[in-house]
Design goal:
By secondary structure, the chain is α+β, with helices and mostly antiparallel strands. It is 38% helix and 20% strand. It contains 13 helices and 19 strands.
């Protein structure tokens, strides 16, 4: 999966910089190399309970209800997160079309490359579907779009409203539209996001565990700095410690790490960096627990921060706290961003996006970024069991940046963070 963190790693290699991708360093880190704070970590895998077939079946029924409400006759879902969410099927995307078509009424059908039939059958029958699955295969010299069209005809919806999942490639949606000109291709987001953006108690438990795992990994990597007693620890070495700590805790995870002036770039730089006395380090990352992610940022200083650094940290901390207080059922998403932005602007770091250059938060769940978004202009009202990042920041180009990010759950009456807020630049954990 391409994420902003992976792209930074790839970019570093492509630029020929004196950087080794964090994943390679982590892979080469043996148990003997690990600092004590990381080596002593124990796996938390037993705490994670997988999503069940019954839960996925309930999601399919919820999707059908939303299809009826939005006047959709079916949705098409290709390989990606939404397919996993509804079915448990993990399918990489390629130039060959694989798709589930879920009608509002009647059984779903699948269109699959002929040589992949056995692999598809294995995963489909392990999912929430009753009876013999309807799999329509196509050979290399045949059109998958004709298979979709026939399936729609068999369901009596070839002239219906067909929702297309947002991550499906244009080539596939257009291919179906070309052979089914009487069908109307529309967005499936009201259905897919309508299901995914409100979490079940089980999903929230998995996200809470992911957040605690990442925070523990971060804290262990932070302590490793003092155990190493080494000057000039690179951002890649620190990132390797974070990855190794996640591995010890039983879940894959990583972090992008930016030091000094590069912390003023919200998604960082590929330039070589080293942590020295008095410099700020900003890390942003997370892990995956049974497919559900964390996304946490911490900013700290080794040694004594400047008064300006402490002032900026305090403003960002206050903005994060105000955003948390503003986030409650019935409040518009955009109002949460406005509450945090006002704190930062009133403190002299405005206007608009000058220093706080991004939205205050994004929805999260199986994807690190998913619907809905805490951004100006979003009038969608919050409802219980939505989950978001809460991540205000101030970025002063050429000097430093501070971002504090925790994962937030909308409760029945307000909101809560899954993890404790950072206390200060000197006590991040």
């Amino acid at each position: 999966m391409f994420t902003r963190r992976n792209l930074l790693k790839i970019g570093a290699a492509a630029a020929g910089a004196s950087l080794v991708p964090e994943s390679l360093i982590a892979a080469d880190t043996t148990a003997e190399d690990l600092p004590p704070s990381i080596a002593k970590l124990e796996s938390m895998r037993s705490l994670a309970k997988p999503i069940t077939r019954e839960e996925r079946g309930a999601r399919l029924e919820k999707a059908r209800q939303l299809m009826a409400q939005n006047k959709l006759d079916a949705i098409m879902v290709g390989g990606g997160t939404s397919l996993v969410y509804f079915t448990g099927i993990h399918w990489w995307t390629s130039e060959r079309m694989f798709v589930m078509v879920l009608p509002a009424k009647g059984a779903p059908f699948f269109v699959c490359p002929g040589f992949e039939e056995d692999r598809a059958m294995e995963q489909i029958t392990a999912g929430p579907f009753a009876g013999t699955p309807d799999i329509r295969i196509w050979q290399e010299d045949e059109s998958p779009y004709q298979r979709v069209l026939q399936g729609l005809k068999d369901r009596g919806i070839a002239a219906g409203n067909i929702g297309v999942e947002e991550r499906m490639g244009f080539v596939f949606a257009d291919g179906v539209a070309q052979v089914a000109p009487q069908a109307r291709m529309v967005s499936a987001t009201p259905v897919t996001a309508g299901c995914r953006m409100v979490k079940s108690p089980h999903e929230i438990d998995l996200m809470r565990l992911a957040a605690h795992v990442t925070l523990q990994a971060y804290a262990s990597a932070y302590r490793a700095i003092f155990e190493s007693k080494k000057e000039g620890i690179t951002q890649n070495q620190f990132a390797a410690w974070v990855a190794a700590a996640h591995d010890k805790l039983g879940f894959p995870g990583d972090a992008g790490v930016q030091v000094g002036e590069y912390s003023a770039l919200p998604h960082g730089s590929i330039q070589p960096q080293a942590l020295r006395e008095g410099s700020i380090l900003l890390m942003d990352g997370g892990c995956s627990v049974e497919g559900y992610v964390s996304d946490i940022s911490r900013t700290f200083v080794i040694g004594k921060p400047t008064d300006k650094m402490k002032k900026v940290f305090d403003i960002v901390h206050r903005a994060q706290t105000v955003a948390l207080a503003a986030a409650k059922p019935g409040v518009e998403c955009g109002a949460v961003d406005a509450a945090a932005r006002k704190v930062i602007t009133d403190a002299g770091f405005g206007p608009d996006y000058k220093y706080f250059s991004h939205r205050v938060g994004h929805g999260m769940g199986m994807d690190g970024h998913e619907w809905p978004y805490l951004v100006r202009g979003n009038k969608l009202a919050l409802v219980p069991h939505m989950t978001f990042s809460d991540e205000p920041g101030i970025y002063i180009r050429g000097e430093f940046g501070v971002r504090l990010e925790d994962d937030m759950h909308i409760t029945e009456n307000g909101s809560e963070l899954f993890t404790p807020q950072s206390e200060s630049l000197e006590k991040p954990f």
